[in-house]
Amino acid sequence: MSARIAAVALLAALGAAGCDKNCQNTCYHIYDPGECGINIGGVSEKDLKDQCISECTEALKRTGPMGTYDPYVPHDTENVELQNEKQAAEWMDCVWSATCEELEPTSGGICDPIP
Asked: What is the pTM of this model?
């Protein structure tokens, strides 16, 4: 019976891991057509996801303060870059709490940087 409980616990953990806020899940949420499907003219979905994941994971490697970064306030995306793990974590929280419409850069979206 304990093997069955262990198997159920493992499956539950694997299922929950797929929903964790991490760079890959967050970037897929933004750009995947089955989710928000944010489209930036002239840039492929794959390139958008790859760039997003790269920038997010690089920020997670650095420590530092939040500073003046606030993803809930619309910015000029050209000037916004995730600098460290605190900013990346707050950015991921913003993305998951926002509606897809709120993420859309063409409508003055929040959760920058979304190119």
From this structure: 0.79
Task: Specify the length of the chain in residues.
Answer: 115
Copy the structure tokens of residue 39: 């489209």
Q: Angle, to 10 degrees, between the axis of helix 85-97 and the axis of helix 45-60? A: 130
Q: What is the 3-state secondary structure (H, E, C) of 36-105?
A: CCCCCCCCCHHHHHHHHHHHHHHHHCCCCCCCCCCCCCCCCHHHCCCCCHHHHHHHHHHHHHCCHHHHCH
For the stretch 44-95, pLDDT in tens is 999 999 999 999 999 999 999 999 999 998 866 567 899 999 999 999 999 9
Question: What are the DSSP calls for 4-35, one per residue?
Answer: HHHHHHHHHHHHHHTTS--HHHHHHHHH-TTT
